[in-house]
From TrEMBL:
Active site, renumbered: C100 (proton donor)
Protein name as catalogued: tRNA-dihydrouridine synthase
Enzyme class: oxidoreductase
Organism superkingdom: Bacteria
Keywords per UniProt: Flavoprotein, FMN, NADP, Nucleotide-binding, Oxidoreductase, RNA-binding, tRNA processing, tRNA-binding
Cofactor(s) the protein needs: FMN
Recorded GO MF terms: flavin adenine dinucleotide binding; tRNA binding; tRNA dihydrouridine synthase activity
Length: 320
C-alpha cells in the first residue's frame, strides 16, 4: 500500500483522535502492526503563532514512522505556511481535517464546516499541496447533515487539487459519533475517484474490518474508537485478513504491563503531572470490561502519582 511516494506496511490505520492518539499510544499501535498512525489534530493557527503545545503535537518518534500529522484550519495561507513548516518535520504525510464536528472548531469554519464550502476546500487543498513536499491527504465526513451529503463532490475536489488519498468517515456532522456509519457512501466515493480511499466508521474487530473492505472495495481502513485502550486490534485485524486466524486477546498481565509502558512514555514526554492526567482516560479504556474496573477507574481518577497508580494496578491484576 502506498500513499503518494510513502510505502506502508499494510492498509490498517489508526484514526486521528484528539486526546487519544498521543505519541506513546501511536508507538504501541505500530508495535502491533498498525500500517499508519495519525497524530491528534493540530491547530494551524496554533502553529502559525508558534504555540509550543501545537508544535509538540507534530513530533514523530522514529518508532512510529512513517506517520501522518493532521492539521486543521480554514485559512489557505496559514495552512500552506504550516505545510511548509512541516517539510522539515519527521512526518511522512500531511492530513487535512475536514471532519471534526466540535462547535468550537466548526464555529470558525474549520473541521467539518469546510464541507459546506467546496470552493474553500479546493483553495485549501491546492495551497497545502503546493507548499508541501510530502503527500497531502484529506479526511472528510459523509456531509454536514442529511440534506447536504456531498462526500463525493468533496472527494473529487480533493483529487483534482492534488490530494493523494481521502479518508471518509461514514457519518454526517449532525450525527457526531452516534448512529451507524454509512459504509455505502465510502463505496460511492471509491467508485468516484482514483486516489486511494480509506474507509472509516464502526470497525471494532477483524470481521468488521474485512466486511468494510469487501463491501466498499476501499483501499485501506481506519480504526478509531475500537483502538482506544486496545492497540492489539491492529495485529488482530492484520492476521485475520492474512490467513483467517483470530489471535486471542492479551492477558490481564500484558494489559497492565502495556498501561505502565504507556504511562512511562507519556510521563517522559509531558512530565508527571500532565502525563498522569492524560493517562487516566487511557487506563479506563484499557481496563474496561475487567473485574473491578469501575472501582479501579474511580480510584485512579483521584490519583496524581505514578507509583500509587502502579500499586493499585498490581493489586487490580491480582484480582483478575
Ligand atoms: C475522542 C475522539 C477524538 C477524535 N479526534 C479526531 C481528530 O483529531 N481528527 C479527526 O479527523 N477525527 C477525529 N475523531 C474521529 C475519528 O478519527 C473517527 O473518524 C471516528 O471516531 C469514527 O471512527 P470509529 O467509528 O472507528 O471510531 C475523533 C474521534 C474521537 C472518538
Amino acid at each position: 500500500m502506498k500513499i503518494g511516494n510513502v510505502e506502508l506496511k499494510n492498509n490498517i490505520f489508526l484514526a486521528p483522535m484528539a486526546g487519544v492518539t498521543d505519541m506513546p499510544f501511536r508507538i504501541l499501535c505500530k508495535e502491533q502492526e498498525c500500517g499508519l498512525v495519525y497524530t491528534e489534530m493540530v491547530s494551524a493557527k496554533g502553529m502559525h503563532y508558534d504555540d509550543d503545545k501545537s508544535n509538540k503535537l507534530t513530533l514523530m518518534h522514529e518508532k512510529e514512522r512513517p506517520g501522518a500529522v493532521q492539521i486543521f484550519g480554514s485559512d489557505p495561507k496559514i495552512m500552506a505556511e504550516v505545510a511548509e513548516k512541516l517539510n522539515k518535520s519527521d512526518a511522512a504525510i500531511i492530513d487535512i481535517n475536514m471532519g471534526c464536528p466540535a462547535p468550537k472548531i466548526t464555529k470558525n469554519g474549520e473541521g467539518s464546516a469546510l464541507m459546506k464550502n467546496p470552493e474553500l476546500v479546493a483553495e485549501i487543498i491546492k495551497s497545502v499541496v503546493s507548499a508541501s513536499q510530502k503527500p497531502v491527504t484529506v479526511k472528510i465526513r459523509k456531509g454536514w447533515d442529511d440534506s447536504t451529503i456531498n462526500a463525493i463532490e468533496i472527494a473529487r475536489i480533493a483529487e483534482k487539487n492534488g490530494a493523494r488519498a481521502i479518508a471518509v468517515h461514514g457519518r454526517t456532522r449532525e450525527q457526531y459519533y452516534s448512529g451507524k456509519a454509512d459504509w455505502d457512501i465510502i463505496r460511492q466515493v471509491k467508485e468516484a475517484v482514483s486516489i486511494p480511499v480509506i474507509g472509516n466508521g464502526d470497525v471494532t474487530g477483524p470481521k468488521e474490518a474485512q466486511k468494510l473492505l469487501e463491501e466498499t472495495r476501499c483501499d485501506a481502513i481506519m480504526v478509531g474508537r475500537g483502538a482506544q485502550g486496545n492497540p492489539w486490534i491492529f495485529k488482530k485485524i492484520v492476521k485475520f485478513l492474512e490467513d483467517g486466524t483470530i489471535i486471542s486477546d492479551p492477558s490481564p498481565k500484558e494489559k497492565i504491563e502495556t498501561i505502565i509502558r504507556h504511562m512511562d512514555m507519556l510521563i517522559d514526554l509531558k512530565g508527571e503531572k500532565t502525563g498522569i492526567l492524560e493517562m487516566r482516560s487511557h487506563i479506563a479504556w484499557y481496563i474496561k470490561g475487567m473485574r473491578d474496573a469501575a472501582y479501579t477507574k474511580q480510584k485512579i481518577f483521584q490519583m496524581k502519582g505514578k507509583e500509587e497508580i502502579i500499586t493499585l494496578l498490581r493489586s487490580f491484576l491480582m484480582r483478575q
